[in-house]
Amino acid sequence: MWIILGLTLTVLALTAWYFYNKQQQAQTEAHFDQILGLRQLIQLLRQHRRLSHSHLMKSHLMKSRGETLPVFPEQNAILNLSHTLLSQAGLEQKPMYRILTQHLQQLSTEWPQYSMSRNQANHGKNIRHVMYLIDDHLTTSLLIADKSTLFEQYQQFWPVTLNALDTLAQFRSTVAVFRPGNNKQEILLRRHLHLLQRRLGQMNLMLKIPGPSLMADQLENDLTTLLQSASASKACRLALYKFSLSLSDNIFYLFDAKLTEIAHALAIEDFPLDISASLLPLLEQAESETAGQTELKLQT
Question: What's the farthest any 2 CA atoms get from each other in the chain?
């Protein structure tokens, strides 16, 4: 009888343990579904910032011709995705998602009136908001999984990522007022770049499989070549802005590599390193909506 009772208790304990682990894994997968959606949202915001920046540079010509700035597919994709993420968020996180959705709605309607510097800053502010939501989901997932070592590694990686984004923002602020031949501004650009090199190197070293070393090694040489080749202020600032895009790409490549590393450690095997491919369905849907909006404007 005691043997039967012992076996029964063992089976019950194993069953409870199995269902507990299954529930934990389901919660972790739900958090990573949100993380993937938030990462897609960052990519769409970065694409929209590039497109809107380019159009704002030409906005004075457009206004003189009585033209209006376009609605980009990325704009509709951003709003659609933000509402989807809000509907999927847990009750404790919904307030942060609602605030984000409101800010994105405001951005989508007001960006044509922004200056280029304000456009950069507002996109950056929203990207930072999304980053904090990712951090919240990721931290919760690691605590649920009781991965203390992985949690400590992530806690070291996270502030370096934020510092890299801050340094990039400072680099871009200097670019916005840069004049070729201004030694003080050039020294400041190099100082920001040198600090960003250090941040990229730190992020790279904290990955289990480091990324390409050329991401940080060639940056200073590239900047020197760029400054020597552009003499006109507008051309130089445009070239420096394009250079800053590659810096941004490097930061988010390393951030995605860390997300993928953690996802695999938590048995989320299908989390992609390259987010771009997963954006195609979102953009295809948004393109059809954009075409409909454009047709409606023409009819009215």
Answer: 93
127 and 204 together in one domain: no
Same domain membership, residue 127 and residue 117:
yes
What pTM does this model have? 0.86
In tens digits, what is the pLDDT along the chain, a chain of 300 residues? 656 656 565 555 555 444 445 555 667 888 999 999 999 999 999 999 999 998 888 765 455 444 566 778 899 999 999 999 999 998 889 999 999 999 999 999 999 889 888 999 999 999 999 999 999 999 999 988 888 899 999 999 999 999 999 999 999 999 988 888 888 988 999 999 999 999 999 999 999 877 766 555 677 788 888 877 767 777 888 888 889 998 999 999 999 999 999 999 998 878 887 777 777 777 777 777 766 665 555 455
- For residues 124 and 173, the answer to whether their CB atoms sit within 8 Å is no
Q: Which of 145, 166, 198 is the last residue of a domain?
A: 145
Contact 86, 64 (CB under 8 A): no
In a domain, 214, yes or no: yes
**What's 248's domain CATH number?**
1.20.120
- Residue 253: give the domain boundaries: 147-278
